[in-house]
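Appendix C reproduces, verbatim, an entry submitted by the partner laboratory led by Prof. M.T., so that reviewers can inspect both the input and the predicted structure.
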Amino acid sequence: MEHKDPSKPRRQLPAIPVHQPHPDQQPTLPTIIEAPVTPAAFYSTPNSVTSKQQPPPLPARNQQSGSSFTNYQQINVANGEYREPELVQEDQTSFQPQTVSGTWTAAPDIASAWGAGRPEWEPQPTDVWHDAWNGEYQDWGELTVRRVNIDGRAEEEELNWWDLSARQIHNRPGPGILPTLLENYLHNADHTLYSVSASPPDVKPRHRSSESHSSTSHPLPNPPSADEVRRSIPHPNAYYCRKHNGWVLLHWKSSTIEPALAKSYDGPSLPDITRRRRSHSCVDGNPQLVTQVNKTHHFHYYKAAVDSAKITTPFKRADWERHPRSKLRRRQAVLLDHSNLSSVDDSQQPEGELLDLYVCCQCSLYCVVSDVIPGVIPQRIFEAFKEEKVENPHVGKTPVVSLATALDTILMIIEDRLWKGETRALPVHRNSFQSKLGWSENIEEVFRCIGFNLDRMNNGQGELALHAPVLDNNVVEGPANRAKLLRAWVELSAWLASFTRRHEAELFEQLKIRNSVKIDSVRELYQSAIGAHPEQLPRGDLPETLRQIGDLDDDWETLGLTPSSYTPELLTFAYLAQCRCDPGDTIRHFTALVNIVQTMQMMNEDTPMDLQNLILDERTRGRFTRDDFSKAANALGFGHDGPLRVDFDESVEEEFIINAWRDGIRRSWKDETNGSAIRRELNDALKIIADARGSQEMHRIWEREKGSVMTVDTAYSTLGVSKEMDENTVITVFDLRVEEQASQVDKLREALSVIAQVTESQRLKVFLDTGRDPGDVVVPTRPDMPRGLHQLGNTCYLNSLLQYFYTIRDLRETVASLSAVATKSPNLLDDDLDAHRVGGRLVTRREIARSRRFVAQLADLFWNLEYCEDPAVKPSIELAKLALVTSKDEEEEEGDKAGTDSSNDTDVTLVEDGSTHVSAPSETVTASPIQTSFSILGKRSRGTGSKMDIDAPDAEKDKDYVIVSKPGTPAQTPEELPPESQVTTGGDVEMLEVEKPGPTAPVRKGTTGMMFGRQHDVSECMDSCLFQLECAELIRSAKLSGGSNPDIDKTSIVKRLFYGRLRQRIMPEGGSSRPSIHEKEDLFLHLPVNVSEEGIDIYDGLSRYFNDTVEFEDKKAHMEVSLVDLPPILQIQLQRVQFDREQLQAFKSQAYLKFGETISMDRFLENSDPEKKRRSNEIQAKLNGCRERIRQLTEAKHRPFDLALTETCDYLSRNTVNALPGLDQELLVSLRHEAMHAKQELDDERRQAAELKLQLEGIWENENQALYELTSVFIHRGESASWGHYFFYSRNLPDRPDEWFKYNDSDVSAVSKGEVLVDTTGSTANPYLLVFARKGSEVIHTVKRFDVGSLEEASTK
């Protein structure tokens, strides 16, 4: 309907034509009456008064009646099978103009009706929609924007759109759409809907001879009457679509009474009816309004909201129309008799078709629409039939004539059966049939759909023939066959009428013109009804270059309009209406507006000044786009390149955001040149994020602390104080200045606020807030509260680890004792170095020297954590460097600087500094050839423990232990593998399956501009620290032993606390006479759990580690791992790094892994009950199978299958843009059945998985010999696998096990147990390392603080 030529005059706005149809088809204009209309008088002719008020007819419209004018028909009431509908009475009002089912009533004189005659239920209440503003777009500041007619806006709500409490006052209906977009939503804009009027054809019943009559058993039925023909149309408001060969029920109405919602509807409530009653219609020509209040309608969508059985006139499909699976819920009639409904319980009545509802929030107009009601011949079959006739025309005929002739022949066959009573078989291979119609599978399908059966004739020749359906009412299927055949006749006739109209010149002399079924386009009719007619909303103002930009499609739809209907005024109205009705999504609406206007500017189009002013105006009111939001997060330091190195998402706590803002403000004071600009940017950033989050607390802090862009020097000079003055003097001077310069109080407060921020003076901040000097303010810190650690720069992982070490009592005491030894020269002999090893390898003097310094620094930190009164302690730079930089890297760095010997070793050193790697076994190691980049969440190996015997002279000759990986990966030598993470089966990035010799010093190469090289993860940092502790222990052990002692490792605090022993067996799949192929015992530091999918718990993850299928000697084998000895502290690492084989990059899995306060390791012990283990393994295998199937059904490329199928079906059902070949109702039904099947299968698998899980846990519920309790949880927050933020939770053991502490660098706070065990689904803050302590071991003493009160008590005694 676009007018590409603006100079071409537009047609007049269409009005409803006056028809003079057959008397049986004349419509009646509904009026409000006191009592129900009797069936006999239901279909009446319009009175003379009403007829005179009918507007002129539509331009070029066929002056015939159609389905849109057959609401109320005068029918033959003697037909007992048909039950008359009655007009539903509405509440009587003094004025109620309405449009019913496309038939508009004439409006009475409004001058006396409006105002003076207002109904009692509409006494002009104080309406928050109407009285909030004056109904027009407001001018803000000095900007001038074209006035746009729009009412119902609330200034307070729009300014505080982020505040949920402000939005709840008005209860807005949500986003809406304008009429032009509604037109597309109602039905495909490229498809024409037709009003269909039908009457019996001019044919005479066939009079059979006695001979012919005796040859058939079918009695001659009565031909369909005119009433029956008219009622073959599905509904008075059903319109035919030739593209779908189906019908669309489209019903619009202006009514002060809301439509009856379906019982099953549970969606949002409809717009405020009180407000809607004030206006009959929003569009031009509304006689009720002196001036137009709103530019146009603003519709809101309610899916499946209206029961078609409750509309006027009610609609239900006939039994023969329903799918066989729904026949169990058979309904009784198409049109309901409302005369007896009062005696029926409405809750027991089955629902009809569910219709979509569109309601204008500004007036009483609403519209209901159905999905396509399929025709008798499915679209797919009908399209195949037409394609065949066009591509293979009959000899001597054009494709058009061939198709028209074939359809005309089918219609003649149907008419012969219905009106002539013809029951003789039609031989399909005789010349007469072949010349007109031909025969094929497609033609057979068409006849099968309308009830004709293909069978052989009993004429001795066995010819194939079509046998007509039985139409006798005395036969069960007779009435249904008759109704279906009659509907097919109407549909085919309507399609042929449309086809003939489009090819009239070619078919004029070739085909007999049929007048029984007439069609008329209703596009302009419903366009006018909903306000979408080009006369109401002109088209073509948007330049063609902008209409073709697909990137703006979402923006146009977000604002609820189409690009073809663009005008500056309409775009402004669309934006303001969305902000009015959907204030909570103001960011999205403003982003769409800005995108459209900026695109106009980038395309060098003439951008209206009104739109540019509107954007400037909105920005002054605090509006921002999504890009602005991203920039705000970056300004506060979030993002990969930001100083925080943390992704910004919903999981980031408000406290963290506020602290980041405060840190930025503090840094800005040091920048005298750009400080003001930086503070302005930071303040704007916090305001934007506070708005986006809807945070009252962040707004409160922003208002209180946003300060000023005033420089520090200006602040001091304004008050007339120096930077050396104390707080008492500053407050005194401020009070004096306020008394002397009362008019400058705001500027003086601004200056004092700047000083308070720069000096971080809590006293000045309280004084500004309260107006009272609180004296010296000391932020109270509980004496028994753990102290935090200041971050040195991307060292949150180190802070977490150091705090964790401090909670371990034995480790804390060992560090204190080692520090005394470490301060003395070790004076170790070369034999001592050769005899004592760490992690199964020799250590160098450099490493021993470094470990001494490390222990001394760590002991100093521990002392401060115990005695310091400040809330947080700052670790030393040397401690951080010793923990994070290896000896090898340190040596290389010194070598690069000095170019000389960097070793501390003497000439008699027998062990040279060199690579700390251990030679791998000689067997072939299979691993994936894909190598991942560095990840701070790199996975651990299975053998994370120390291989203590690998350095023995014959270690490499030991062939009992082999390294295996998952099947299906090519061989690769150890030298080709990177030192840390590898990719294994399933796309997971996993630590190389190589025995790791205890806590060796990791190799770290390269720098990233960070303080200590690249960022690390907790596990890597732990390896380095434990290695240093063992080296320090080596000094004391060597002195105590006086030489070689093979039992030194057993006394190591690191080995005793953290290391356990496991046994690995590799057995062939399918069983074998040999108990195992290879068996090996080894130490472990961590137990790895792969976290790649949702819905599993800690036991499921461990089970996959202890029982797995691997590739061994080019064959699949079963690997079983069991625990021989458990440590006091059990560490379980959650391997979150996965590998995306499509993107070829690592990513972090955010899956939730359920764990509790305790864990029992009995099921994994070497000496566990064999029978229970066997049963457990069988159930676990079945459970894994169920979960794999659930994963396949739910983790498709885009979404779960059942949801994807359902949404695809919904999209195709309302597709209004492009007609897809092969799309018909049968395909849609199949898609819905597939979605139901997928959902049912998913539900069954989930139910079975839950049952298997219960059985599995029931086996081990009483086994608690190896019971552990949760003590610490390390959290990694961030979307990336390469960077993020660490913090950790620690349980307050042993005295308060229900209390937890959260260690987040310098901030330490008490939190609830629920926060630690919370379901993290949808969050980027996920557990990464779980720490459990053996029940009763008492190795964890979380809080170690010096009690000052004990000294005071001692002094008083």
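The radius of gyration is 42 Å. Additional entries are available on request from the coordinating office.
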